Amino acid sequence: QVQLVESGGALVQAGGSLRLSCAASGGIFGIMRMGWYRQAPGKQRELVATITSGGTTNYADSVKGRFTISRDNAKKMVYLQMNSLKPEDTAVYYCNANIFRDGDHELYNYWGQGTQVTVSS
Question: Cβ distance 112 to 5 under 8 Å?
């Protein structure tokens, strides 16, 4: 029963900071790429940032220089440090991960339930 659970979403003022966390649990053999996506009302879900098992990061242009993705393999967690938040960052943020399950050769993709981030002007 592999699952991802996000936490850290909140209401913050523009210019503020927030750190999101995502914990992976269950029968996990290994976690490959992890990432954060977001979805604002009426819009498609979009990539925010990803990080490979080797630590290579990728960011959407809209968050470059403001957000930082990181991971802790021992804790099976991924984080998103968000600084200089803007109202347009308001969205539900979802954790995503490609995971090898115990006793399985196939890579599976998982999504968390989402955590709400609201940035007021």
Answer: yes
